[in-house]
């Protein structure tokens, strides 16, 4: 399915919210509500191999989730009911942005396959905040330094779990992305992802404690999985430094396709691919290579320029001012 014109990204956002419980465009739920309203709701129906699932999200003062009309107690119960893989134009800057953006991307990808990961990450972040607050109190109020032992041990226990989740996931992505990217670049570009952490699962506690004096001076925790990062290499060169705009774009799309392949391998369910304006700045060979890789998935593509999808069945829709119009009997998306 392709969708064109104003409001098209809102459709992808609605599906994403029903899948993961949050927007990919904002962290503020109130921004998902029309400026002239106090509430909003989204409901979708998905068919999996063994069942149909209805998911509803209600937004007002609180955010509520329902699966088959049954209210969920916590957001971590939502991921895994519908699998999605999202690509947006903003993803192109992910390799050149600050590490926080890449960690967020990694967290989103892992949370679909490992819902408990969200709970572990939330616990880690709360513990980290408490430790940072106490570091400031040591410096300003003369609190006892040895009381940090409790938070150090908690951070270690939670941090090792997060580290192992991330390492396992990136290893699985690496097993997929190389083949996918070689196929789309006529065997010219070998891609690899490297997980970077200043911590590992062997001496986590020791590394935190050896920076304690520096942490007290700075007032925050300088080591831990909250500072993790990853780098993508093309032919052993850092893509963020040496890659062209087209290479960066196609590498990120290969990353998303690898994510889809990992989801299918683990769950037996093919995720919905949400591709927002992904054709721009790609040459015809790369476009054709990516279309070959996504042909077995349900795909929703939004765009504004025309392109052809040979040997494929698809529906065309036009979105204008929040209204969707079906364009019947066309195989080529016309420029609008």
Helix content: 40-55%
What's the number of structural domains? 2
Calculate the terminal CA-CA distance, rounded to whole Å: 16 Å
Q: What is the tally of beta strands?
A: 13
Kindly name the structural category: alpha/beta
Which stretches are low in confidence, meaning pLDDT under 50 for 5 or more residues running?
A: 1-5, 329-336
Rg result: 22 Å
Written description of the protein model:
- The protein has 336 residues and is α/β, with parallel strands linked by helices.
- The protein folds into 2 domains: 1-83 and 269-336, P-loop containing nucleotide triphosphate hydrolases (Rossmann fold, 3-Layer(aba) Sandwich), CATH 3.40.50; 95-264, Glutathione S-transferase Yfyf (Class Pi), Chain A, domain 2, CATH 1.20.1050.90.
- The protein has helices at 8-20, 99-113, 116-141, 148-184, 204-209, 212-218, 239-242, 245-267, 284-294; strands at 2-4, 40-47, 52-59, 63-67, 70-71, 84-87, 191-196, 229-234, 237-238, 272-276, 299-303, 316-320, 323-327.
- The protein has a 6-stranded mixed sheet with strand order 6-10-11-1-12-13, with helices on both faces. Strands 2-3-4-5 form a 4-stranded antiparallel sheet, with helices on one face. The chain has a 3-stranded antiparallel sheet with strand order 7-8-9.
- The two termini are 16 Å apart.
